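Q: Sequence in, structure out?
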Amino acid sequence: MYIFYFLSVASLLMAGLILSSELLGKKINFFFDFTKFTKTYPLFLLILGIVVLLIGAFKFAISVGNAGIGIPVVGDFFPAVGGVLGGLLLILYYASNKDNAEIIEAEPAETDDNTVAARLKKIKELAMTYRGIIGLVLIAVAIIHLFVPQILFF
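A: Exactly. Output:
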């Protein structure tokens, strides 16, 4: 369905712009203002994260193709994974920034790396550290998916 194709491209682009806005804000002033917007309205991150996550999940089942002739998982695999990953990162970004404060670097994980809390804390540290690069990858996936909706590799 073409509506999910459009929603996938738009949501990946928005998620990528928000996640990479601090990284790009060092070079382009427009993204610095976009970062201020997300800090002013932190609930926007949560709502967009949920929407991007749902669209990414639906992309696994719904393909852009000719009446179901295409292979749904292969043709839309990167946008679907990007949507799920982008949605989860936006929700995590909201959770770490929900008090409208700057993102505080997490303390080092506890010495016991086997606990679930320590592993989740380590995943959160990695996700927040590399969110700018992941955002740029989401922008690239959105642009490639815009011009090549059905082909995985070209």
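The CA atoms of residues 106 and 125 lie 6 Å apart.
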